[in-house]
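Human: I'm a chemist; would you kindly supply sequence and structure tokens for a protein?

Assistant:
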Amino acid sequence: MKNYMIIFSPTGGTEKVAKAITQNWKQTETIDLTLLDTDYTKISFEKDSIALIAMPSFGGVAPELALERLSMLKGNGAICAITAVYGNRAYEDTLIQMKDYAQKAGFQVISAVSAVAEHSIIRKFAAGRPNVNDCKELSNFGDRILEKACSGVLSTPMVPGNKPYKKSGSGIIPEADDTCIACGLCARKCPTGAISEDQIKISDKNKCISCMRCVSICPVNARHVSQVLISVVSDKIKNACLVEKENELFI
């Protein structure tokens, strides 16, 4: 059995969760759904393989771009576990979206996880998550996923969510200040191609999905989002984030 991680992790939180779950999976190959120039239609999986598919939840739904790229893969009946990672507010329709898209791509969904990681925009929410206890819990559950895969009992668990899916909200668009050194890293690493090296300080509002990768990787911390918008969003979600959420495990 060959093992895979299929991840969309612009700021690293989703990747941390995915690595915790697959900690005891041997020789795991990573498929990175944030890569702009990859032809995902050419990626095919062996029927006897198992994949962990992990994505962040943006406003209660999975990033449309990540779902589109997932749908291009050829699952060929491979087993998979889906994981939605969110910043302690709510993941709402993310898991059911991921389940539907994984099945359409030809994967057998045998398990699901909702996991908490530090909020990608309001960093004070879920700061330090996933923590040591999270990682231990997720690693133990990763072992259970493997056990189920090997057992041959490949039932699909029920996951929360509604159809039609919730519509994604309007985004918060980062831009660079005068400390930008025009190194071009943000342009090269943007999952959507929203930043041009010719106009490095500006993000294309029609392409940006507010994933915050450009903010998180800038070597001089030159990219930011409006502090006014940050305050508005923080006030809007603070009540929902007051209570620290637990990871949810479905098998």
Summary: Residues 3-164 form a domain with the Rossmann fold fold (CATH 3.40.50.360). DSSP finds seven helices and eight strands in the chain. The longest strand covers residues 108-116. The chain has two domains: 3-164, 175-237.
